[in-house]
């Protein structure tokens, strides 16, 4: 990969990639692997980019698609679907951010199903229902209903954790 | 917790340290860990291995006159199998990752299924052929020849086919036939061990998205 491509076309959007990769990984090693793979795939797919969508939207798509189908290195994948926030993952080593509330929010997001994670991440990034629907390939009205459910679940989890 | 999740998100990322990109070392030299790319690579490797195995059998057949016929036949089978895999089958192709997630996952799933179907067919011949090569290699070796000689000396009335007593050849062919019959099961079991988790996750995600595509949440 030419370093110019990374500097000019990926690095300005690194925030998007970091935020998404963090939601699909539990360890720093996995996070770095996912980040690297996303960058590699953006570079490899650059010729498929059509200007009918923003470059940032396209980055969201690639990042989500790569994260949804990558295999984590960790041997033990915790099934956290119906569980509360797993505090065992919140060790000092696994805390990705200095902000404690953000760490808790991320752990709550990680307890969601993969598709719900994608939806809520896009929502928090202030994408409209229509944009979220287009990125994921679903219907906008269903996205609205799903977001309300996810938010309720996250709020409940955070409330229980703090209290 | 008083703050909304939207506020936690915004405020959490005000600190620029939260968004420092990891250092990338020699990215252009890195191998992709993408599953589809790995499968494409593994598929190519498998076909090359079958071809090499076929050539190896051909060499053995040419160099050792005693095993010439069965090894030449097996070699032809293996080489033919690899050419068939190269030429005939729809190969798994790289998928556009810039598509929406639903289309991407559907394509990903279809690619995995195509690949599984292709290899299930390939292994239908591959498993019994490897078994036959091993067994016939042994039967026609000097050691096997000595054992068969001793058996025929003790039981001279045995029915012999191609220099091998039918009581030995029969079970070999029977086992190879069973392997051919159950190769799909063996292959599926193999796939489940390697990709089981991914396939299950993929199925769940597609089902979930299909719910959202109906729009009747």
From TrEMBL, chain A:
This is RNA polymerase sigma factor. Belongs to the sigma-70 factor family. ECF subfamily. It comes from the Bacteria. The keyword Transcription applies. Residues 103-154 form the RNA polymerase sigma factor 70 region 4 type domain. Keywords: Sigma factor, Transcription, Transcription regulation. Residues 13-76 form the RNA polymerase sigma-70 region domain. Pfam families: Sigma70_r2, Sigma70_r4_2.
TrEMBL record, chain B:
Keywords: Membrane, Transmembrane, Transmembrane helix. This is Uncharacterized protein. It comes from the Bacteria. The keyword Membrane applies. The keyword Transmembrane helix applies. The chain crosses the membrane at residues 45-64, 70-87, 125-143, 158-182.
């Amino acid at each position: 990969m030419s370093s110019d491509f990374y500097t000019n076309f990926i690095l300005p959007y690194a925030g998007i990639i970091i935020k998404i990769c963090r939601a699909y990984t539990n360890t720093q090693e996995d996070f770095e692997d996912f980040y690297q793979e996303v960058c590699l795939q953006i570079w490899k797919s650059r010729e498929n980019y059509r200007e009918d969508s923003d470059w940032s939207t396209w980055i969201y798509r690639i990042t989500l698609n790569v994260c949804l189908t990558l295999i984590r290195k960790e041997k033990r994948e915790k099934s956290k679907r119906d569980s509360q926030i797993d505090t065992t993952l919140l060790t000092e080593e696994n805390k990705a951010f200095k902000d404690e509330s953000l760490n808790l929010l991320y752990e709550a997001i990680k307890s969601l199903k993969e598709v719900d994670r994608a939806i809520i991440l896009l929502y928090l990034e202030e994408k409209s229902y229509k944009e979220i629907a287009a990125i994921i390939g679903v219907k906008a009205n269903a996205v609205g209903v799903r977001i309300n459910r996810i938010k309720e679940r996250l709020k409940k989890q955070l409330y229980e954790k703090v209290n | 917790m008083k703050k909304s999740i939207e506020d936690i998100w915004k405020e959490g990322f005000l600190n620029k340290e939260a968004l420092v990109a990891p250092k990338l070392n020699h990215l252009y030299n890195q191998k992709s860990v993408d599953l589809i790319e790995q499968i494409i690579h593994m598929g190519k490797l498998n076909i090359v291995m079958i071809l090499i195995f076929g050539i190896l059998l051909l060499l053995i057949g040419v160099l050792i006159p005693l095993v010439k016929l069965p090894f030449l036949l097996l070699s032809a089978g293996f080489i033919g199998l690899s050419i068939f895999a190269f030429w005939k089958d729809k190969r798994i192709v790289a998928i556009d990752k810039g598509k929406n997630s639903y289309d991407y996952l559907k394509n990903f799933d279809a690619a995995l299924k195509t690949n599984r179907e292709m290899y299930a067919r390939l292994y239908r011949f591959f498993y019994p052929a490897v078994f036959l090569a091993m067994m016939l290699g042994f039967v026609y070796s000097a050691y096997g020849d000595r054992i068969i000689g001793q058996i025929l000396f003790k039981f001279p009335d045995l029915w012999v086919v191609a220099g091998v007593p039918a009581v030995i050849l029969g079970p070999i062919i029977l086992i190879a036939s069973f392997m051919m019959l159950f190769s799909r099961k063996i292959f599926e079991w193999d796939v489940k061990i390697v990709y089981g988790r991914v396939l299950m996750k993929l199925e769940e995600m597609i089902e979930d998205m299909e719910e959202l595509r109906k729009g009747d949440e």
